[in-house]
């Protein structure tokens, strides 16, 4: 299987090499919550890591499922929920095969796409579409990390893999998702000065 494995991520957690982790919920999640565009509903957070966003959503009244296939992430997300006194379901599963019993109203996708080798993006795009009910939403933070190895030599570099907006449009096509017009909010990351995320809200047709 191309790209990182759960063992790769487990080692990152064990060695505390978790540069992606903000140590708190993303400011973009708070912006979406404050604006009212993201309202309490049944929501899934794929690749939830330590669960900061899961906790924030649960605290805000959402029915949340946090999804991650790495043991350390699952344990830490569960511990965080317990510590914060919030109720959320943390499921240990691969996002490429996870099949919920019922569809979700929304997905909060924060840098899970960029953790997957592009070889798996088509499958992941299909998964996202299958999880969300018609009229539901995908709140996505697409990692922007252009590297010269990619543009000059065609190397596939990551994680994080650069989530080019053209590729995102191809994976999540207009036939299945309503895209609002750009510009999209640019979300900086304190630990990744050479990259940023683009915050995009899509609606499932
Ligand atoms: C870059 S981290 C992002 C964590 C979290 N979303 C955040 O922003 O702090 C990627 C997470 O996705 C998880 N992950 C990667 N591939 C996965 C897969 N195929 N299925 C489930 N989880 C996966 C990893 O275990 C890791 O916790």
General description of the model:
This protein has 205 residues and is of the alpha/beta class. It has one domain (6-11, 26-34, 59-204): Vaccinia Virus protein VP39 (Rossmann fold, 3-Layer(aba) Sandwich). It is 31% helix and 25% strand. The chain has seven helices and eight strands, in the order ααβαβαββαβααβββ. The chain has helices at 6-14, 27-35, 52-59, 71-84, 121-131, 148-153, 165-171; strands at 42-46, 63-68, 89-92, 104-110, 132-144, 177-179, 185-188, 196-204. Strands 1, 2, 3, 4, 5, 6, 7 and 8 form an eight-stranded mixed beta sheet that branches. A hairpin with a 7-residue loop joins strand 7 (185-188) and strand 8. The longest helix is centred in the middle third of the chain and has 14 residues, at 71-84. The chain is globular and about 50 Å long.
């Amino acid at each position: 299987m191309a790209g990182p494995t759960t063992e790769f991520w487990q080692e990152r957690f064990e060695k505390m090499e978790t540069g992606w982790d903000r140590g708190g919920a993303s400011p973009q999640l708070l912006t979406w919550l404050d604006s009212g565009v993201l309202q309490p509903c049944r929501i899934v957070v794929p690749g939830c890591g330590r669960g900061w966003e899961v906790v924030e959503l649960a605290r805000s009244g959402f029915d949340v499922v946090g999804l991650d296939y790495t043991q350390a992430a699952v344990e830490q997300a569960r511990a965080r929920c317990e510590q914060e006194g919030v109720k959320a379901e943390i499921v240990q599963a691969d996002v490429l095969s996870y099949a919920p019993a019922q569809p979700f109203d929304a997905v909060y996708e924060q840098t899970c796409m960029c953790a997957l080798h592009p070889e798996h993006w088509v499958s992941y795009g299909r998964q996202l579409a299958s999880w969300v009910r018609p009229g539901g939403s995908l709140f996505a933070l697409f990692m922007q990390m252009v590297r010269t190895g990619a543009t000059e030599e065609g190397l596939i570099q990551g994680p994080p893999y650069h989530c080019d907006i053209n590729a995102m449009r191809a994976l999540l096509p207009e036939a299945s998702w309503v895209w609002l017009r750009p510009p999209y909010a640019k979300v900086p990351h304190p630990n990744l000065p050479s990259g940023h995320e683009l915050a995009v809200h899509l609606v499932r047709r």
